[in-house]
Design a protein that fits this description.
86 residues; DNA polymerase, domain 1
Length: 86
């Protein structure tokens, strides 16, 4: 699907900025500002999987950790959930 790591990274980070809910846009924008330089291939795959989740579900999983499915227990999801927004 992707020719190389940088192309994949560029596309996934672009997609992360344009969600359907403003709160997620802000959260993903902060995430990319904080972590984009340090993302590895596994992180990008995890982020790509998060972007496949419907907006309202993802927002609820972030806001209400007890409702989070086991398959979302990843380093990338924990980073996203633990961001401090100013």
């Amino acid at each position: 699907m992707f020719n190389n790591f940088e192309e994949k990274k560029k596309k996934i980070l672009y997609r992360s900025k344009y969600r359907g809910i403003r709160e997620l846009d802000i959260l993903f924008e902060k995430f990319t500002e904080t972590y984009s330089d340090s993302l590895d291939f596994n992180d990008l795959n995890e982020l790509n999987e998060l972007l496949k989740i419907p907006d309202w579900d993802l927002l609820n999983f972030i806001m209400y950790p007890k409702q989070t499915p086991v398959n979302l227990n990843s380093k990338t999801f924990e980073r996203l959930r633990n961001l401090k927004l100013k």
